Amino acid sequence: MCWRSFGGEDYNDDLARLKSLLGNLGCAIPPLYKQYSEVCEPGGVQFIDFGSDPDFNNCVDVWVLVDLTYLKANRYQRYIGVHLDAQKSA
């Protein structure tokens, strides 16, 4: 499996393909990968690099870049707006 397996034009198609490929290996998409993928509008999240951590049972590490200007409105309110509202009230 390599990045060329994914077109990048259709998130749902790429996600279905990733699930299928991982399923063939007896694996599933890590929950945080899916959550990061869906926190922003298209183009707001990039998975820069992957590695495995031998000191942590060979867990896969991911370097994720999230452009907060692309946050979906409901996620912005949940993670950022609520704190701004609290500051205004204080």
From TrEMBL:
It comes from the Bacteria. GO terms for molecular function: acyltransferase activity. GO terms for biological process: lipid metabolic process. Keywords: Acyltransferase, Lipid metabolism, Transferase. This is Hemolysin. It comes from Klebsiella michiganensis.
